[in-house]
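hey can u run this one w/ zinc ion bound, need the structure tokens asap thx
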Amino acid sequence: MENKKNQSAAKERTWKIREYISGLEKVKDEIIEYLGTLSDLDDSTRNLWTGDTKECYYSIAAAWQMLSSQTKNNNRFLDSAGNFLKAAESRLAQVSSELTSLDTKEARCLKQEVEESFNYCHLALSAELERLSAGKKNKKPTQKVIKAAENEYHLPCAVCGEIAVKFKIGRTKYDKKDSLVFSGITFSRSMEKDLAPQLFKHLEQENLSRVHAFMKKHYKREGLDAYCPKCGKIYCKRHYRTREEYDEGYYDCTYGTCPKGHKRIIHD
Ligand SMILES: [Zn+2]
Ligand SMILES: [Zn+2]
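ok here u go:
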């Protein structure tokens, strides 16, 4: 009996999500149609913006596909669903900024419509993701810094233990020589290999604020993207609740809000 009840509740949710997604699909088509009517918009901008609108919708659809096709506790599918949801959020921010820049009544209406229908989808899919992840226990890491290999260090998220930051000596496909390679939650960067000894010293000492200061000095003033200076902790993309901002369709910056509510620009 209980099982039957659960099954019908699941069916109900599935049905609702389908409805929300087709709502978003409709608004997507309306925006694309509207962009097509704007004669003073040049073709390349129209194509870009049309692409953003489509990508926003298809990322939501893909997240749903991952969630509905997965068997319980398959982390790989859940992670991809989470990534698609994040991507969809970024594209929505982009589409909203594009519509705002048009500064017409129709564009303002479309912006409101797309944000509304997106929120329905996003709330429902996030809830579904939460529900399916419930069995997946967060493992609080025991170390602040993990030495993964000689010349390679990993920084785990303080909440779930997922590796948020990696530093190593190596090459990305763009590097011609060995470099100090950083990859964080918003960006990756190759730096001078000669800088490695001083950074590795901070890592050996698990001194995250020094690592942050090092990134400020040698990269950008935002420093180590996954680091909340107020908490003195590292957070993964999910737990730093990253949000990209756009201005007229162009990337502006990324904000992070940590589980304690500290907010800062983590990438510019
Ligand atoms: Zn985390
Ligand atoms: Zn914090």
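Residues 157, 159-160, 162, 235-236, 238-239 surround zinc ion (ligand 1) (CB under 6 Å). anyway lmk if its weird
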